[in-house]
Design a protein that fits this description.
Radius of gyration: 17 Å
Number of strands: 14
Largest sheet: 5 strands, antiparallel
Structural class: alpha+beta
Order of helices and strands: HHEHHHEEEEEEEEEEEEE
Strand order of the largest sheet: 1-10-6-14-3
Length: 212
């Protein structure tokens, strides 16, 4: 199955509703065996297709988030148009450049909580995917999100990813509708300690092409 077919067959109204409600959405089984094999090789054409087709499906949510936050910016319909308009790399909360990347975590490895800072008008959504099977290839290594709402304790969430699943999540912030209108909440993500085996995943910033 091509990347376009894999993306187009998804239930996008449900995904958009979940992103607006939770700031993240798990898409089970998006990546078939062929796409997983190509991503393990960091095939630039496959990565480019993922970014292109997911951008086109996610741009309505990105524009909705800007509208409710009263941000005077509209993302164009295609990634090519957006890349022509924008420039520069995203940065994480420490000020370091953020890059799309393949991750291989072995026993006792983990990813600490992190958040990518938003350069002006950066695309607000990103992708993560799991490329091998929890329970068989590794144990531990859960993908964790924390959400901080004003005047509330952080809310932790564990995304139940399986091999071939893709998750869409906010890069750094998202709008949340409260009793007095919309306000901004902050999200961070992490990967818990791997207890056995090797966990292989990929993280893709939609408006940045490098995979290291």
């Amino acid at each position: 199955m091509s990347v376009r077919d894999a993306v187009d067959r998804l239930d996008w109204p449900r995904i958009e509703a979940q992103l607006n409600e939770e700031g993240c959405a798990v898409l089970p089984g998006v990546l078939g065996e062929g796409l997983i094999a190509e991503l393990l090789l960091a095939r630039p054409d496959v990565i480019a297709d993922l970014r292109k087709h997911f951008y086109e499906r996610l741009v309505p949510t990105a524009n909705h988030w800007n509208a409710v936050r009263e941000i005077d910016h509209t993302y164009p319909d295609t990634l090519a148009e957006w890349m022509a308009q924008s420039g520069g790399a995203a940065v994480d909360a420490t000020g370091d450049s953020a890059h799309s990347r393949l991750t291989r975590l072995r026993i006792d490895d983990y990813e600490p909580l992190r958040q990518y800072g938003e350069r002006p008008n950066a695309f607000p959504l990103q992708l993560v995917a799991l490329l091998n099977e929890p329970g068989n290839d590794f144990t531990g290594g859960e993908f964790v999100l924390t959400e901080q709402r004003p005047r509330m304790q952080s809310r932790p969430m564990v995304l139940p990813l399986r091999r071939g699943d893709v998750a869409v999540l906010a890069v750094a912030h998202r709008p949340h509708k409260g009793t007095k209108g919309y306000y901004r909440v902050s999200l961070k993500h992490a990967i818990s300690r791997v207890r056995s085996g090797e966990r292989v995943g990929i993280e893709l910033l939609i408006d940045e092409a490098t995979v290291a």
